[in-house]
Write a structure and sequence with these properties.
Chain A has one helix and five strands. Chain A has 77 residues and is α+β, with helices and mostly antiparallel strands. Chain A has a five-stranded antiparallel beta sheet with strand order 1-2-3-4-5. Chain B is mainly α and 247 residues long. Chain B has helices spanning 10-22, 43-58, 74-97, 105-133, 148-155, 161-180, 189-196, 201-246, and strands spanning 30-34, 37-41, 63-73, 135-137, 144-146. In chain B, α3 (74-97) crosses α4, α4 packs across α8 (201-246) and α6 (161-180) runs antiparallel to α8 (201-246). The chains are: A alpha+beta (77), B mainly alpha (247). At the A-B interface, β1, β2, β4, β5 and α1 of A face β1, α2, β3, α3 and α4 of B.
C-alpha cells in the first residue's frame, strides 16, 4: 500500500516529511532526502510563518527534538 | 595518482576490511528496541550518525512548504522512519540513560530546555493579547507602532509586576521593553534590572524562569503532600468508624 508524504526543497534537494511533532506552537519536522535515505535532518517551522522551515537553534533544541521524536514513537531506551 | 598514494593488493584490502570488522568492540554496542524490532550498532556508528544528523539539523538553509506530495511504499516509509528513529534514539538514550548514574549534563539541559521553553511560551501567550490590542498600523499602512503607554498601563493589572515585566521582555525583546518601561516608575528596563540587582537581561531571564520553575515544583510538592494528608485522614476516619462499630 502506498503512502502520501509531503515534500519540501532544502539546498535544492527534495526532502520528505517523515514525521511531524508539535511542541509549544512549533512543528518539528523529521526529514529524509528523497534520493538518499541516509541523508536525514530535523527542521522546525517558524513561529510567525508556519510555511517557513528553519534550522534548529542549537544543541539543546536538537536534543529536545530527538526526545520529542523518541517519545512520540514510543521507543524504549 | 599522487606520490603518497599506494595501490593495495586485493588480499591487503580484504585483510584490512576483516581487521576493521573484528575491531568493532562488542562492549560498546548499542541496542535500540522499537516495537518488535531490535537493531544493534556500534558506538562509533552511533557517534557518526548522531554528528551528521546534528550538523544537518542545526545549520544550513531554510525551506518553504509548497504543499507538494509524492507517493512512496509503506515499507519505504517505515524504513526511513526507522532510520531517523535509530539516530534520535541514540541521542536520547545518552540523555536519559545515564541519569541513574548520578545525573547527566545533557539530560538536565534537555529537561531544563523543556521546562524553560514551556514557561516562556506560556508567559508570551498570556502577554501577546496586550501587545496585539495596542499595535497599530501607520497611516501609510506600511509599518506599525506600539502604544507603549497603554502596554505599560496594562502591565499594572498583573498581580505580580515582575512577571509582567518578564512577559513583556520575552514577547517584545529588550529594546521595546525599555520603551514600554519609560512609562513606569522605573523609567526604563535597564534601570529596573539595575534596581533588582541583575547584571544584564540574560541573567534576569534565567533567574526569573528558574524561580518560576522552583515555585511550580514547590506547589506541586505541596499539592502531593496535601493529597497524602487527605488520604491519611480518610484512612484514620474509616478505621475509627470501624472500631466504634465493632466496639
Amino acid at each position: 500500500m502506498d503512502k502520501e508524504v509531503e515534500v519540501i526543497d532544502i539546498y535544492d534537494k527534495q526532502y520528505m516529511i517523515i514525521k511531524e511533532v508539535n511542541h509549544n506552537d512549533t512543528d518539528y519536522l523529521f526529514l529524509s532526502n528523497v534520493s538518499d535515505s541516509n541523508d536525514t535532518m530535523i527542521r522546525k517551522t517558524d513561529k510567525n510563518d508556519k510555511d517557513l522551515i528553519i534550522p534548529l537553534s542549537g544543541d539543546d533544541e536538537y536534543e529536545l527534538a530527538c526526545l520529542l521524536f523518541t517519545k512520540d514513537n514510543g521507543i524504549k531506551q | 595518482m599522487g606520490n603518497n598514494q599506494v595501490m593495495l593488493t586485493e588480499d591487503e584490502l580484504r585483510r584490512r576490511a576483516s581487521e576493521k570488522y573484528s575491531n568493532k568492540s562488542k562492549k560498546d554496542d548499542f541496542r535500540v528496541i522499537k516495537g518488535n524490532d531490535e537493531v544493534t550498532y556500534t558506538e562509533e556508528e552511533r557517534q557518526e550518525s548522531k554528528d551528521r544528523l546534528k550538523g544537518n539539523s542545526t545549520s544550513g538553509a531554510t525551506g518553504r512548504r509548497k504543499t507538494k506530495f509524492i507517493r512512496i511504499s509503506e515499507s519505504e516509509y517505515m524504513y526511513r522512519l526507522k532510520n531517523i528513529a535509530l539516530k534520535t534514539a541514540a541521542v536520547t538514550s545518552i540523555a536519559i540513560g545515564v541519569v541513574g548514574y548520578g545525573g547527566s549534563h545533557i539530560a538536565s539541559s534537555v529537561n531544563e530546555f523543556f521546562v524553560e521553553s514551556s514557561i516562556q511560551n506560556e508567559l508570551q501567550k498570556d502577554f501577546s493579547p496586550i501587545v496585539t490590542s495596542n499595535t497599530h498600523r501607520t497611516d501609510d499602512n506600511q509599518h506599525y507602532w506600539y502604544d507603549y503607554a497603554k502596554i505599560a498601563s496594562r502591565m499594572k493589572d498583573y498581580d505580580n509586576y515582575d512577571l509582567a515585566v518578564l512577559s513583556c521582555y520575552l514577547d517584545l525583546g529588550k529594546k521595546q521593553t525599555n520603551k514600554v518601561m519609560n512609562y513606569s516608575e522605573y523609567r526604563s528596563f535597564d534601570a529596573y534590572l539595575q534596581q533588582k540587582g541583575f547584571a544584564d537581561a540574560k541573567e534576569y531571564k534565567e533567574t526569573m524562569i528558574d524561580q518560576i520553575r522552583l515555585q511550580r515544583d514547590l506547589d506541586k510538592k505541596q499539592e502531593e503532600l496535601n493529597k497524602m494528608r487527605q488520604e491519611h485522614d480518610i484512612n484514620v476516619e474509616t478505621k475509627t468508624e470501624g472500631a466504634s462499630y465493632h466496639g
